[in-house]
Design a protein that fits this description.
Blueprint lengths: L1 H60 L3 H10 L29 H72 L23 H13 L3 H14 L5 H14 L3 H14 L6 H14 L3 H14 L5 H14 L3
Helix pairs in contact: 1-2, 1-3, 3-7, 4-5, 4-6, 5-6, 6-7, 7-8, 8-9, 8-10, 9-10
């Protein structure tokens, strides 16, 4: 009897020892399953909350600031039902398209992207505003410069018209009156040699007579040379005629001849000297204003003459008290 009891006790202890690991194993599995259900429910609730916040942020970023608070207020809060821990997961409506849940890192990246886009848009808007301001400033400057050019052109045209009128009046007076000064009679001299009647010969002879201060002979030879002058030589012949008349002190005719020399070739090397001669002739006639206008025309049309000529013009302006 005692042996049977001992055998029964041992068998019972062995069974208990064997049953204990199984009990622990099944209990651990059940506890792990319960924890897994709780974790899944918490993750689903968290994903829904993050999705709702992301949707609100995206909608708010595309609307004016006055509508963002209203949109955020209209977004429903996702309740975290603690009573459902360990229970059945919430049933989702299959007909509603739910956005893909975002992790916190993805949500932060999306917000940073929105901020960068706003910053880039603001920078581009500022650049466009600055460019438009610069364009407007340049347009104003161009308009001001154009106005100044128009004023100067009008002044030049007025001066030119006044000067031409004075010369026309002078030409009329010359053609209808006798010279103010009668040149002194030069005694006739026997011709030593025959003068070459070609243009070059006449020009050479006229210059030689002017150098000898025989201005009457220089005038006669210059007129003959002017009649035979080719197109390229008319300026030299006309200018030599003007110098001869000035040497004879026939100022009215000299002024006309000098200005005709300028008009034949306004851009030639003779042109500034012809204007200077015009100014000196008009001053000799007593027309101070016309003389100063001619000197002003020299400075405007020939701003970079030879130093010696520039000094001569400055000297004459000072002598004539031209402002």
């Amino acid at each position: 009897m005692p042996q049977k009891c001992d055998f029964f006790i041992r068998r019972t202890i062995s069974a208990a020892v064997l049953a204990l690991p199984l009990t622990l194993c099944f209990g651990t599995v059940a506890f792990g399953q319960e924890q897994e259900d709780v974790s899944r429910s918490s993750i689903a609730a968290n994903n829904e909350r993050l999705t709702a916040e992301h949707r609100s942020a995206v909608r708010a970023s595309s609307l004016p600031p006055t509508d963002q608070r209203r949109i955020l207020d209209e977004v429903p809060d996702v309740p975290s039902d603690s009573s459902n821990v360990g229970g059945e997961p919430p049933v989702l409506d299959e007909t509603v398209k739910h956005p893909i849940a975002m992790t916190p890192a993805e949500e932060l990246a999306a917000k940073n992207k929105i901020v960068r886009q706003k910053s880039v848009a603001s920078t581009q808007s500022d650049m466009i505003s600055r460019l438009l301001e610069r364009v407007n400033d340049q347009e104003d400057r161009i308009r001001n410069l154009q106005g100044s050019v128009d004023v100067l052109q009008k002044q030049v045209s007025t001066m030119q018209a006044s000067y031409d009128k004075r010369l026309d009046d002078l030409k009329f007076q010359v053609s209808h009156s006798s010279p103010n000064v009668v040149p002194a009679a030069v005694p006739a001299r026997p011709a030593v040699k025959t003068i070459d009647e070609s243009f070059s010969g006449l020009i050479s002879a006229a210059r030689s007579a002017k150098a000898q201060k025989n201005y009457s002979k220089a005038e006669t030879l210059s007129r003959k040379a002017l009649d035979k002058a080719p197109k390229s030589g008319r300026v030299d012949a006309q200018y030599l005629l003007a110098q001869s008349l000035a040497g004879e002190k026939v100022w009215s005719k000299a002024a006309v001849a000098y200005y005709d020399s300028y008009k034949l070739a306004p851009k030639s090397s003779v042109a500034p000297h012809a204007l200077l001669g015009t100014a000196q002739s008009m001053h000799a006639l007593g027309d101070h204003q016309a003389a100063c206008e001619a000197l002003s025309k020299v400075n405007k049309e020939f701003p970079h003459p030879a130093p010696s000529f520039k000094a001569e013009v400055s000297r004459v302006q000072t002598q004539y008290h031209c402002g």
